[in-house]
Every structure is written in C-alpha cells, then in structure tokens.
Design brief:
Largest sheet of chain A: none
CATH topology of the largest domain in chain A: Tetracycline Repressor, domain 2
Shape of chain A: elongated
Helix content of chain A: 55-70%
Order of helices and strands of chain A: HHHHHHHH
Distance between the termini of chain A: 63 Å
Oligomer: homodimer
Number of helices of chain A: 8
Structural class of chain A: mainly alpha
Number of domains of chain A: 2
Largest interface: A-B, 50 and 50 residues
Radius of gyration of chain A: 20 Å
Chain lengths: ~200, ~200
DNA sequence: GCCCCTAACTAATACTATTAGTTTTATTGT
DNA sequence: ACAATAAAACTAATAGTATTAGTTAGGGGC
C-alpha cells in the first residue's frame, strides 16, 4: 500500500524524533508506526525488535553526545577542557533529556554494538585527562571518577533529586567539577596547573 | 478463595522479595499475584496501581539504604564517616541492585510521599558534612556533589559502563571519594574536624 | 445464627510486543 | 514491454501488560 521506502535508518530517525517530542515514557511501537503512517507489524521489516531499536536509538544518542563533547573541548586543554567537557555533558542531558533517558535505560551495556559506542564515550574524556600527566592506570581510574560525577549529577538533576534545596544547581555543578579538577591536579603531580604550557 | 488476609503491607513486602529474587525487569502484577496465590485483579483491593506500588517499594528501598548509611556512620566523623557512608551506599547498590534499580527508575521524584523519603536520604549525608565547618549553603552544594559521585558510580558500575578497563573498581571508588574528601577539606578551611568556615 | 464488609473472584477492555502468512509493489532481467 | 523476484506493507492471531466493573463468598461483630 503506497510503499514509502522506509528503512532501518529512517525508522530509527523517526523514533528519535518521537522520543524527543513526546517523551521516552510515551514511546511505543504502535505510536512510532502511526507516526510513519504504517501498521505496527510493518516496522519489523526494518528492525528486529523494540530492544534492538532502542539500542540503535541509544547509539545515535551517544554519538550526538560524544560529538558535542569533542566539539566542546576542541582547541582546549587542562582545566579549560575539563570544564568545557563537563558543561557539554550536562547541557546534553538537560536539552535532550528524553534521549539521555534512553542511554540510561539500558540495564546492561553488554551488547557488542553498544560497546563500540561505549568506547567513543571515553575518548574525549581520555583526551582531556591526557593533559594531566597521569599514568595509564590513573587515567582509567579518573575517567571513571569524571563519568561518575557527570552522570550522577545529570541523573539526580533530571529525576528531581536536587530540587529540595535553595542552592543554585549550576554552582553545585561547578563545585563538583572543580573538585575533580583539583583532584586531578594533585594526582598528576601538582606541577601542571596553568593549563596551557604543560605537557608530559 | 480461602482468603489469607492480604494487606497493603504484605503485598509490598512480597513485591520487594520478588524483585530481589527475579529482578525488576521481570516484575509484573501478574507475577506478584501468582506468588501470592491470588488473581491479578485481587491486588487492587490493597494497592491503587502499579505506579503507587512501585512508590511504596521505592520508599522501602530508600528506608533500608538510609538505615544502612546511618548504621555505617554511627560513632564516626570526618573522613572516616565520609568513607563509611560512601562504602555503605555502594554496598547497597551492589547487594540490592534490583531494589536500587527501583529507586533509579522513578522518572520524577515529585510525589509528596517520596519527598519525605528524599529528605531522609540527605540526613546522613548532612550529618557527615556537618563535621567539615561548611556554611549552610556549602553543605547544600556538597551534599549534591557527594550524591552525584555515589549515585553516578553505582549507576555506571551496575550498567556495566565501568567494565571496559583493566582497573580495579574498588580503587576507582576510593579515588573518587578521596577526591571529594580533599575537596571538602579545602572548602571547610583545611580542617576536617572543627573547621571555622573559611571560604574558598 | 445473621449481617455486613470486603477480600478475592470472573469477565472484559485496552494496551503492549511479536510472529506467521498473505498481498502488493518496485525493481530487475530478458 | 513482460515475467520473475525480493521485500515492503498488510491482516490476523497470540501472549503478555495494567486496569475496571460487577459478583461471590468468607470472617468478624452483633
């Protein structure tokens, strides 16, 4: 019936739009099919299952996030890069909160396709950390510390867990990133503070 | 038939058990009803909806977490209390991961009943922070920093996002908490016990 | 022993994802 | 231009989800 040349890619793209518009909670195969003027079963010609579709959506979300992170740290280093990265992460979580939810919703990042994306998540972070004179093992640890802070802050902020105190959340975030920045400084030997002339 | 005197409390308790055993993903009204040897519709004599039930379960989970936190910091102060609190939080997230998932699953922490619990979450944290000589506003900020670190770490660890590097996660966690501890020290005026509220 | 409240039931509705099998359409080869 | 083929979209059906309305029956208070 009036076939419109739907493809896996167009389905994923439509799903991303629908989620950003109506929210992740509201999303369903039926709603997506209706949006594409197609019966629900027809979607299965292009995707294997809802789970796989969500993995594609999550992959797309991660790619966008990583792109913004790389954009943010381009030409920067040291603390400037660190703050820019963190701000970009938080901005994404706020401005694309429904898409960010999809990322968070995965119970396990076991899927091989997602591990690829997972690796790209770490790339800009390691790029920032590379300016601090850390050992490789320290980089592994501090990468986790930074992701914990950024992810934890975004999560709590989104779920409303940070709403119960009359304190500016932007300021809280700055303090958190400052805390990591100082910790990194100390871990790196304390000799690389000016953020521009230092290299390892 | 053969009515067994089910109550809201026993339903919630059974739901908690079922979730801890079979996982949050597997949970459903039907499964819970089967576990209680009752038809699904019968549950609605005791609870209003799945959403309300999950709120009760989340409340129970939070109460248990807060209890463990308070247990952990009892008789301690300063850094010792801080590390004990963080360890207790992470231990709960690991040992009761399915229950922890319920807490994380709330899209919005708006419900008035949950706000009560939310307040109790902060209590042990503020108790720990009270030894650092912070202003009230600083306590509000650092409470968020600490929750972000603990929550973010637990989340990433659970979703497998921290699995991709050959680095000990315990050590990563220690580094993260150490980072916060040092940040607090600095914010409180360099004295972990009786700081006089020096500003940064 | 009777009454009443309500726990538990049956039945039905409206969703959800998913599969099997069928029709229709576009493209490709001759 | 025409037949063959691959696949896009369909219909129909299944099994799962939460939820509501209306009915039956059991236990506690009188």
């Amino acid at each position: 019936m009036a076939r419109q040349g739907l493809s896996k890619d167009s389905v994923v793209r439509a799903a991303v739009c629908l989620i950003e518009e109506k929210g992740f909670q509201q999303f369903s195969m039926g709603k997506l099919a209706a949006r594409l003027h197609v019966k629900t079963a027809s979607l299965y010609n292009h995707i294997e299952s809802l789970e796989k579709l969500l993995e594609c959506i999550g992959g797309e979300a991660v790619r966008r996030l990583v792109w913004l992170e790389n954009q943010a740290i381009a030409g920067k280093r040291g603390e400037e890069a660190l703050f820019a990265l963190a701000e970009a992460y938080r901005a994404f979580a706020r401005e694309h909160c429904e898409l960010y939810r999809v990322i968070m919703a995965f119970p396990k990042w076991n899927n091989p396709a997602l591990e690829q994306e997972a690796g790209e998540i770490v790339t800009p972070i390691l790029k920032v950390l590379s300016g601090y004179g850390l050992t490789e093992m320290q980089q592994f640890h501090w990468q986790r510390v930074l992701r914990a802070v950024m992810g934890g802050f975004a999560f709590h902020e989104q779920s409303g867990g940070f709403a119960h105190f009359p304190a500016d959340r932007d300021e809280s975030f700055r303090i958190a990133v400052r805390c990591v920045a100082d910790g990194l400084q100390r871990a790196g030997g304390g000799d690389g503070e000016d953020g521009k002339g230092n290299f390892i």
